[in-house]
Write a structure and sequence with these properties.
The protein has 128 residues and is an alpha+beta fold. It has helices at residues 9-31, 65-78, 104-115; strands at residues 48-49, 54-60, 83-88, 93-97, 102-103, 121-127. The protein has a four-stranded antiparallel beta sheet with strand order 3-4-2-6, covered by helices on one side. Strands 1-5 form a two-stranded antiparallel ribbon. Strand 3 and strand 4 form a beta hairpin.
Amino acid sequence: MSVNIPVSSSDIIVLIVLIAIVAVAIRVFASFWSKPKTKVSQIDLDGTLRAGSKIQLTVDGMQCGMCEMHVKDSIRKAVPKAKNLKASHTTGKARFILPESMTGRELEERLHETIDPNGYRLIGMEAK
């Protein structure tokens, strides 16, 4: 006994889209059990950071591209000559190269003074 079910091209497209959605859902679901990436190194607040150090910040509150611009402007106010300044709302990270030597505590204070009043929160700093 043979059953003839008509299949149109739109049915095939819908099926492909559903398969893609299921694949993404499985990947997201599986990521809950993966080990988190280890941090490179936390900044020693009492230690000195040398000029040229790559600084990565974790900033809470970035939701869009405009938030990225606000955070980058705040970093420029705290560290005027920062180089290669980048921020991403999708990762919640901001990166820059330190132009001059300073202590970790001094850098943290400067960044808190400029980032926090704008509605964002500096929650972590790492040196690479």
